[in-house]
Sequence to fold (183 residues):
Amino acid sequence: MGWELGKPRPILVEYVEKGLIPKGKALDICCGAGTNTIYLAEKGFEVTGIDISPTALDFAKAKAAKAKVNIDFSVQNFVELPFKDEMFDFVFDMGCFHHVQIADRHRFIPGIHRVLKSRGVYMLTCFSVKNGPAWNHFTRQQLVDLFSGFFTFEEVRHVSSVEGDGVTRYFYTILMKKAEITG
Ligand SMILES: C[S@@+](CC[C@H](N)C(=O)[O-])C[C@H]1O[C@@H](n2cnc3c(N)ncnc32)[C@H](O)[C@@H]1O
Fold:
């Protein structure tokens, strides 16, 4: 798994330590092998982790058992989100949105908005166009255009990261708050 750092994402750790992430119920959407999910649980969040891959979730469950943390893991498709409205204080998306097919974005983005509580926080990390042109490598303006109808932007960072496979990749990390949709 090329994305697996074997430790939680440094920018997630930074935001949690700075108190920018509201404590409470967190959803790790596309949780993979659960490294960030387990970190959040260890920090006192009540965590749900979803992924489409049963194999990834088997890894995640074994690691969570070893870490002695309780996490609600389940196999789910990110376009479905079988959760009640306004259930989560925080949605963590590390490398998830850039897997969403273009035709599914109009379901995915409102889905995140729906499951977040009022003023809930969405932390998005997705590929930047600096990796080269591709359908899922984004400019800052594309991300503004996609998300600004649903969220207010608190902080935007362009970051590079040496990934688990040794390759340097570029990402946008955006901390957003749920906006009230009017009209
Ligand atoms: C780049 S990995 C990121 C994993 C994790 N967030 C991390 O940082 O370690 C992307 C994950 O998205 C999952 N995924 C892909 N399509 C999905 C879908 N339709 N619904 C839910 N998860 C999906 C993959 O199985 C994979 O675990």
Notes: The chain has a mean pLDDT of 95. The pocket of S-adenosylmethionine is lined by residues 3-4, 30-32, 35-36, 51-53, 56, 77-78, 94-96, 99 (CB under 6 Å).
